[in-house]
Queue: 2 jobs
Job 1
Amino acid sequence: MHERCVIITGANSGIGKAAAIQFASKGYTVIMACRNLEISKTAQTEIIKTANNRNVHLMEVDMSSFHSIRSFCTHFINKFEKADILIHNAAYFNHGEKYQLSPDQIELTFATNVFGPFLMTALLLDPLKKSDDARILFAGSNIIKHFFNEKTEIHFDNLQGEYKDSRSHWVYKMYCQSKMA
Ligand SMILES: NC(=O)c1ccc[n+]([C@@H]2O[C@H](COP(=O)([O-])OP(=O)(O)OC[C@H]3O[C@@H](n4cnc5c(N)ncnc54)[C@H](OP(=O)(O)O)[C@@H]3O)[C@@H](O)[C@H]2O)c1
């Protein structure tokens, strides 16, 4: 079990941190892929102590930025031989926020919850293929039940700011759509 490696995005809090503790307790090498190293350092120290496992590494990534994801993946591939599990846990959901674009000009919810994880998965396929039992997991949500209504659809025409000033924006709706995507 000591040879197994799991990458968890947003592992500094909530479900991601709880998962990191569980994997570290079972002897996995855990990569905490987090955007804020300063606040995440405290979580890393706590996970190492709680799980009694020193193989808990903190690496920087902003899941809303393609540049940051590319940099993370390059560093990961240079440092680690393989990845057994990739968990896309980090997510953007800020109640009341206005329509925002990522550094790559993609609506921020979709950039963080969909396109970022998609790019990261693609860039990590080689280390994942080196595992004898690789897994790629997405933190979903029970809100996708709304999508069993056939009238519900993803608004693909407004993912790059096309109607950001003319259509009403509701972050919750974007979040639901991103989880379905
Ligand atoms: N909690 C629930 O009831 C619930 C229900 C359904 C689904 N989920 C899903 O479960 C997952 C975890 O939820 P949670 O409640 O544990 O959330 P949380 O405690 O708010 O944690 C979210 C994590 O995502 C990170 N994050 C956000 N944007 C990021 C970015 N651009 N780059 C890198 N990291 C980023 C946050 O980092 P910072 O600390 O730097 O902000 C934080 O570590 C999410 O995918 C969420 O949609 C949760």
Job 2
Amino acid sequence: MLHKKTFLFAGLSAALWGMAILPAQAAVVASIKPLGFIASAIADGVTPTEVLLPDGASEHDYSLRPSDVKRLQGADLVVWVGPEMEAFMQKSVGQLPAQKQLTLAMLDGVKPLLMKGSDEDDHDHGGHDASEQKRDDDHHHGEYNMHIWLSPEIARLSAVAIHDKLVELIPAKKAQLDANLQHFESALSRTDKQVGTVLAPLKGKGYFVFHDAYGYFEKHYGLTPSGHFTVNPEIQPGAQRLHEIRTQLVEHKAVCVFAEPQFRPAVIHAVARGTSVRSGTLDPLGIEVAPGKDSYMQFLTGLANQYASCLKGD
Ligand SMILES: [Zn+2]
């Protein structure tokens, strides 16, 4: 027992000591991983990039930990979509000086590209239990669809804005930042063409998603979703709700229904059971992608392959 206690104490003091010598801040802190992909491409070789939202957390209802607040306070630049997406950051970002924050949804070039949120669909508002209703409310508190990182066009504008901010903050690194932006833009335009080629044969195929997130990507590449269902990813929907969903799937002749990595397989299987609809997975936050210079391109390519692997074939 005594031995164990000593061991524990030694471990604890090492942990404390370790914390004290770790760098207290990253230069660029991005709210969510895909923005981290863009920021790390531009900041590559200049300054480190960190991502605030842990893998598996929701961009709609995260709560900042005290260490997150410290990270935001210590950042040289915070990159986020804006209060209609990451509401959990609003207070912390509001306390930062203007030159240390970049609100992508507010950029002059981005504002005219914002798509309306799809509140209008009628097949989404019957038979919810309380938790589903809450998710739905979380999703539709804004007028616009704020999943703007799924637009290659807005991603490019975001890269330019991050570049411009970093040049202001670190003028000595302008040449490197310029080269990084140029690399990003040409890699993005190549990837955009490749993804277009992968997705072109899938136009006209109907499908449903479980998250009203993909509008920008779908519009850009001409995909034709039939709609979305709001479903709690952890709880199997009740019999009535399942019946409604399956009826929609059959009526729209949907080929696929797409869940996300956080969904329990049982929930997905319950939805598709008894229909010929295939199920697939979309990863809108790039959980599977490691941050790096070309990670945004890998993210887009991965998403395209996720659509294609379910929608192609008959
Ligand atoms: Zn979302």
